[in-house]
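Researcher: We're teaching a course module on how sequence relates to structure. For the next exercise, students receive a sequence and then see the predicted structure as tokens, so they can try to spot secondary structure elements on their own. Here is the exercise chain.
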Amino acid sequence: MISGVNALIREDKQLQSFPLVRSVNSLVKKHLSPEIWNKLKDHKTATTGSTLMDCIVCAVELDNQHVGIYGADEDSYRDFAPLFDPLILDYHGLSSSFSHTSDMDSSKVKVKIEDEGPIVSTRIRVGRNIEGFGLSPGITKQQRIDLEKMMEKAFGTLEGPLAGKYFPLLGMDSATKQQLIDDHFLFMEGDKNLQLAGMERDWPEGRGIFHNAAKEFLVWVNEEDQLRIISMQKGGNVNEVFERLAKGIAAIEKSVASSAGKKFQLHPKYGYLHSCPSNLGTGMRASVHVHLPGWVKAGRDKLKARCEQLGLQPRGSRGESGGDTGDLFDISNKHRLGYSEVELVTKM
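Model: And here is the predicted structure for the students to work with:
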């Protein structure tokens, strides 16, 4: 009896410090145990001084999370691996033996959209983060400012069709702001998840938008990821959009390496690191806006089921919460991790 009571008292002390996770259906709730918590709760990462609580705060404070965890920096995925690893494999439906491979060779995409008539536009984006700087949830104010300066220099080296102009959010005049809004380029503050996770600290300092002259190549600086790199254009020439994206990423990577000696954060197992584990691997979302009146007639549930079979994700053209947009849909790849970029573009 005494040994049993002693065990209960020891376990009770552990449970007293264990966080109450409000998102009861989240992967954090599923995979966070008192043993993991007590082992890691006092650890701080080297790059940003972030804790495990900093990473899981959204699952703890909000009741609507599915994943519920963000990486504060590159260290988080290593230091807090006892939680991150099973959660990542669970979310992406992968076994522990998998390994991610990246492939941005656009010449390997051998298929094309057969009928571009219903296609309104094509857009492919990826996230990238640079080593030595915190990810957006944990990045310090000075790191964010230094990264923005580094990227301004990198953008200045882009040539030909990729050349353009960088627009910092800090001090942006009303005319420029309105033009970026009209172009649907401007990212805004006010997202509750991003705020709680720490990604909107010191707004708008250290943040901005780059786009080329043709407005077909775009980079967001210091939003949810350090870089959101986007290629887009009217119509359904997916191959052309992917080729531009690949060239743009390569040019930015080369410039950052030569001017600052930095590389993109690349995990040996999870590929390109991102703030949200859901974007690990490629961080790619390849999508088209397409009119599908026949599927509206058949039923949206049937469209959703068919997209699931094809490894695709259907949304309204205004996004997940943008309301009904008639027969115009945003159709994108569903997966990020465990497939190369070439495979995802081909599948989409």
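Model: If you want an answer key for the exercise: The first strand starts at residue 119 and ends at 128. The two ends are 62 Å apart (CA to CA).
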